[in-house]
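pasting for ref
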Amino acid sequence: MTDEEIMKMLEGPTGDATRHQHETLRSILERQGAVRYLRPYLQGFNAPVDAATFRRAVPLSSYDDYVDNINSMANGLVDHDQPLLSVDPLLCFFYSSGATTMKPKLIPYFDSKLSKAASFIAHKGSNAILQRLFPPRTSLNKILWFLYADNITTTKGGFKVMAASSFPLQNSSSNWSQFQASSSPREVILGSNVEHQMYCHLLCGLRNSDFIDAIRVPYAIGLIKVFGILESKWKQLCDDLECGVLSSEISDVVMRDSVAEVLGGPQPELSTRIRSICEEKNWGGIVCKLWPNVRYIRCVITGSMKQYYPKLKHYAGEVPVLGGDYFASECCVGINLDIMQPPETTRFVLLPTAAYFEFLPFGLDHETNVVGEETVDISGVEVGKMYEVVVTTYRGFYRYRLGDIVRVVGFYNSSPQVEFVMRAPKNTSEIVTEKDLMSAMESFQIVLRNAMEAEITEFASFLDLTLSPKELKIYIEVREGCMLLQEGKFEESAVILKRCGSSIEDSLGGIYMVQRKRGEMGPLAVSIVKPGSFDGLLRLAIENGTPASQYKPPKIIRNRQIVDFLERCILVTLSLDG
């Protein structure tokens, strides 16, 4: 199938999105309408059930409504005569990112032909859009691709559990053909230590520096960490190239041997060239200095990844940073037709055949986050309004609240175009949203940079409801070497921090400000944590089962284990009373 044929199949349903949505729901219910989860709601209705009846009869759901069924399936309690969520065979489970709670969710992956067809078109369409802008080059065909197969666990019932992105890497050897362009050998992708894998990916990319066409990574945070390794370990990387042997720090023998084969012996000339570039310690535009033929970088840059975009652009220089698509573990949601756009103007066109979509009205006022009780369908959304996305999928989720807040910004043909706003608050007690916090930190970064040349590298907030009045605490990690971290200068830094504190509170949103003025909120607490603290959170999350490839640092913390970890990393805490 040609790229043009793929694009026609992708764009065709957007011309009559409402009809295709009704057909999608009908296909799902014809296949899954008798599963045990739906039976109590749909019994008594004549099939096929129309969309209005379905939405009236079946309640909105969240992950907690499925967890008992999912645990039963994971434990091997699968009754093929009375399937719980899907009539299709269960292949495995996918992990969610689990950033705010530390423990990832299990998402069942059923062998659904209808879902496979929808996913195939979405992924092929995404590739066709890319190839329109950057046609393949036969002589320069290597990708510095930071791929991680991640560790696979097995449930009590014998089902494998993995990241969704790992499925093609773990499923069968035939799937490896799509990763042949990777500059790294398979053994690096299959490694078990993510920091060592990053180092080896980077080393293989440097060895193939003249042949790298593109750099790819799932999330922007991944590349920020990679360039951090480059800044701190460039001498070691150059030594490895010069000797043709990996540093003893990389302990995995299989990975060492495979990378040594890629290096192909000592590379003194290449090592000298890279060393001369890195010795300048001018990391702006480093991408095209090290990889002169690279045409683009591609990763997810929206949502919480927007925080890393300016730093990524600093490293990228003139090389364009392309955005990703809106694909969730549960289903594909939307496609990015204009991948050259920065995060603030990235739009996703909803795919009418990927799932059945509903939209729960969402708003912010000065008292609380307002969530509507009734959903609208794809034809009922209004431009400029925000909604929480609700999906009914081919793979066992029915009227499921995805937890994403989007804003409708227009239409592509008759299908809504949306921008990702933030993750939805979990409950009404969450007075500061992910969007509020990111906005506050953007303002604080500007003030802090001007006052003391400090660069914020990570941050997260926790609302402590056990205190009276309740307290919002923000944990901030700054770049190593800045004045804020210098011994003997904590007192001076504290004075500057207090002076800058008002820029945070002014941006934390209307609900926070109202409760602060009423005295329902105590003074804002800002804690500066040691450099590397959030890397420690990554390691902790991986220990708890989160796949390295899907990890996103938490912004709104809802897990006491994360709080306890960060509390142990605090250098100084200031109470900002405005």
